[in-house]
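Hey,

The postdoc asked me to send both predictions to you directly instead of through the lab channel. I've kept everything plain text so nothing gets mangled by the mail client. Protein one:
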Amino acid sequence: DKVLAELIEPYELRAAKLREFLEDVKPSLIYDIVPLGDPYGPSVTDPELQCLVVSEETRRGGEAVNKKRLENGLPELALYEILLMKDPDHSQNEEEKISSSSLRQRLLGTLLRPPRRGPALPSRPYVIGLTGGTGSGKTSIARLLGHLGAFVIDADKLGHAVYVPGGPAYEQVVVAFGAEILNEDGTINRKVLGAKVFGNPERLKSLTDIVWPEMAQMVKKQIREADAQG
């Protein structure tokens, strides 16, 4: 449940940076950096450990470690609590402490790698495909892009538009799936249609083979309109 987990560096790189930092602080000490495969790591099984450094927010975790150690027949660790440095410049959505979560938050909007030039691609209009699962923020990002001047094409709305009477896919869908998918007013009942195709890969493909090309043509038409508008 880490914030922006996709932007967390690989373990090997983080461990190397940590080792470099620790050796810079005190080269004479020997450090053993251990990957944690569970919430406790070696802290509940290593009899040689004597102390656990915690912060105010992780003290309860330290107490849970000691409880586990007692269950395992090991002595409790001394809990040494440190104060975390505050970040005076944190924004409303960032943590008060100096943290990697806030640093990842600040990476948003920066390029992770240079744009790839495609010789076959026209320089304009510049088309962005915005995808993601339910609740991933597509609508919010589309709204922000719209405020910045982007011409927003909502594929969900086009998906509804292809089904309406007179729409480009209406006749084909009715022929393929029968008049029983129609409401009394002649509109397609999407729930009845959905019951026919979901769970049936062949019928679902039949539907998408009809609908998706028509949606693609509608998208291309809107892109041309956006280009004409500048």
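Protein two:
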Amino acid sequence: MRRAGRRGRQPQEGSPMENGVGQEPGAAEPPAAEGSPAPRPPRARPRLVFHTQLAHGSPTGRIEGFTNVRELYAKIAEVFGISPTEILFCTLNTHKVDMQKLLGGQIGLEDFIFAHVRGETKEVEVTKTEDALGLTITDNGAGYAFIKRIKEGSVINRLQSVSVGDSIEAINDQSIVGCRHYEVARMLRELPRAQPFTLRLVQPKKAFDMIGQRTRSCKAPGEGRAGSGRETLRLRAQGAATLEEGPTPLEEEAARRVDDLLESYMGIRDGELASTMVEAARGSPSAEQLARGLDSVLGEFAFPAEFVAEVWAAV
């Protein structure tokens, strides 16, 4: 409320108005040039507020003001009074460990975020009887790599204690926290055959209504995409988040094919990486130029030439 006695008092010359515009009350707008249309008011930027819960059960919280995945996890942790390192990954619009609903590089403006936090730790001894273990690895963008898919009939599939959604914390007592998913996939691929090794895994915390809902394998087209032609918040590994239109069906299909190639060649799935590669391919007139472009921005992956050629063909 205003104080009594300020009623009728006029602002002094040069004092800002209460709305911060800095213009005297009743002052006229500068006249528009003759014949020119009146300026349009700026488009109001939507207030990006998202709702979140802990997947095993919690009250609903509200988060805003993040620009990347690490900041998102920090905001969720602040709401629930936990450490950001407790969060293994997030799913959109479901509390289940559903790899089709995994939070990737985009969040729809109406998506509800469920955070899956650390549960029990377990150690599993594995003997590599084949070159491929049958694991597909992804990571949460904030330091944890976890199992996104288990191939039917594979070495890992025969171990009942290993499940989709388990975070890989250590290989032979060597911590891999902070490693990217492709680094973990490379370590597992380079382990010698016929020699046992130990995986230390952390499973997501369970609620009573989640028992029996987890699947040991996940084969799903179009996984990792949150967009459906509506506005989405695009989270980038480098740079600020941007508000964009959701991907078109053709862009979603191209990203899905590239994601399938990533799994086939490298044993990883990464929707954000696939989308980045699709964008690079659209701006490259040839596979050779695409290879140079990928080397400049994603050189740490060391993509082989035949893989880049298949990406070019897919897009």
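Summary for protein two, as requested: The radius of gyration is 25 Å.

Thanks,
C.
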